[in-house]
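Running log. JK asked me to keep both predictions on one page so they can be read side by side. First protein, sequence followed by its tokens:
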Amino acid sequence: MTTPDDLLKYLQPRLNGATRSDEITTMMIPFVSDSGWAYLGGSGSRQQIFQLEGNLRAVFQFSGADKLEAYGVYRSAESWKKTPGVQVPPASSSDVSLILVEEQNN
């Protein structure tokens, strides 16, 4: 997987609202060099972000109830920075347009 389009084509048929974070991790393992979690406030919502070759990133957003809500793929201009014990920065709307899982399945 070397481009955002390649990765989206791989992910789209494999994801739905019932896809669990451990299933996503298993699906992504062959392609990633690192991953981390970004927590999005008191609701429990969070993003699981995967780093791939060439600063390609995949982000999966979960609700506080651990339901997959959205995902996206983007190429970051910034190097991957992960400090032990510190969460990774969340993917912002300027980085990636998230695909809502409910809309995808309709």
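And the second, directly underneath as requested:
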Amino acid sequence: MDFLTVSIAMSIGTAVAWLVALYTTRGSSLLFWNTFFGMAGAFLCLWAAAEMTPALRLIVLVIAGPVCAAVAIYLGNAIRQAIGKAIRARRSR
């Protein structure tokens, strides 16, 4: 993977995180986590595209990258909230 492809993946993950921040009620307070999970999802999509179709990885990244980033943001926040609830429940005992 070259630097251009990696920067495109970072841009896609960050753009999806900013869109989530703009159109949700708690998006701005979760912007750091959304950016982290969005970039992780875009990188995961980039890695999968580079492994499956090296010649078409940019096309797959541009088409499927935002979807992977949005799913990663959703799942990452759900896991983070579940861990937080478990920690709070353990502390209240």
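Observation for JK regarding the second prediction: DSSP finds three helices and no strands in the chain.
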